[in-house]
Amino acid sequence: MLLSYLLILISASVMKCDKNPSSGTKYFDIVILNGRVIDPESNLDAKKNIGIKNGSVQLITAMEIKGRTSINAQGLVVAPGFIDMHQHGQDNENYAYKVMDGVTTALELEMGTSDVDRWYSEREGKAYINYGVSIGHVPLRMKIMHDPGGFAPVANAVYRTASDSEIVKLKEGIEYGLNRGALGVGFGLMYTPAATRWEILEMFRIAGKTKAPCYVHMRYAGLREPNSCIAALEEVISASAITGAPLHVVHITSLGFSYTPRILQMIKEAHSRAMDITVECYPYTATQTTIESAVYDEGWQESFGISYSDLQWAATGERLTAESFAKYRKTGGMVIAHSIPEDVVKSTIADSIVIVASDGMLQGGKGHPRGTGTFARVLGKYVREEKLLTLSEGLRKITLMPAERLEKIAPVMKNKGRIREGADADITIFDPENIIDQATYDEPAKYSKGISYVLVNGTVVVNNGQLQDNVFAGKAVRGIIK
Ligand SMILES: [Zn+2]
């Protein structure tokens, strides 16, 4: 009796909280007050209050509003949550660093998975941030050819040409993955050099049928003909033109090096022929991948324009020699290559067509700093310190542009990457005067500075600069299941 009386009282007070006609103010779950709200889609850049209810933005206003929780964003920027189109590390070790770098959605699109259903079910209800995956040509090739590799293939999937029946299996695997809501098709052509151009075209044909984007790490890097990044880009632009599959070229600076401006020129020329091509880069001058992969097959020094001493062993930070290179190539592991000129990083980030994405993967606190600092670095180093971009331009590259690339295949992305009424309350609130990356090549496992609050689907995951324990607010970003 007492309990039901209490319940009536409580429900009455909740109802009263919804609207308070006497004062004209509205009540929300959460309100973000007095922040500088920047939305790259509408070009809103003004001091506003935001009311959030049931996980979405319900009101953006200059009026006074109230909520059960209120966040004072005075002096801070309130932006759409950052979207990372290239995040290999897909566990809570990685998600913790992502959200502390302002990321609310992290997607594994380049490598992808061979089992879309399992990939999503492994993360459901357990992720700090939103997650999503492509169906991957590389992992499918590894599965079909029984390659024992891990992140990258090391045996059959690298060196053996696929038979006609294996190509059929690959096509079926890609089609099945897309039907299960994969976000497109991932390719790591440099990791599968024995995959013929015809095989790749066959994969693009499947993607083209439903206009699923193809996310590609190109076949070649660097300057040396005939296997240059120019030839590599021609291959995938052709595949896109022939099949109609939209194309996304990943981390162009770590494939193009000093030729990156030529890559961008070629893509803009393709745009002028109405082709659907996007590109991304990360804001660092070094690359990272597994030393045992085909990337470090014979000839890497000439292709990348570097030598042993430009390589750094991720696990220890040591610079390599011919001897240690040979040793580690046998044992396997992550190697960092200092190979991208700083002026190329700058001009690429400043280019209006380029999305910023991290290519991140932290394992036991080891890895490349791009996995933990990419987003704060763009806003701190390249926007604030070097003034390469305006704040709004910088934000556009990490919010709206990735959302627009994804939203045709995954309609949920229409409500991400923007702050507008009806959008998901994925929101990053940061201090524009202090935001900066702290991760280095020697110490990658360092949270960025200046990220004050992060909301994921209307839940506070970072509160006053502190990651909240076990707040698994992330949801699947998935295409339509057919
Ligand atoms: Zn890659």
Account of the 3D structure:
With 482 residues, this protein is α/β, with parallel strands linked by helices. The protein contains 16 helices and 23 strands. The strands form four sheets. Strands 1, 2, 3, 4, 5, 6, 20, 21, 22 and 23 form a ten-stranded mixed beta sheet that branches. The chain has an eight-stranded parallel beta sheet with strand order 7-8-9-10-11-12-13-17, with helices on both faces. A three-stranded antiparallel beta sheet has the order 14-16-15, with no helix packed on it. The longest helix is centred in the first third of the chain and has 17 residues, at 2-18. It starts with a helix and ends in a 15-residue tail after the last strand. Residues 110, 188, 217, 250-251, 359 line the site of zinc ion. The site of zinc ion (ZN) has 6 residues, from loops.
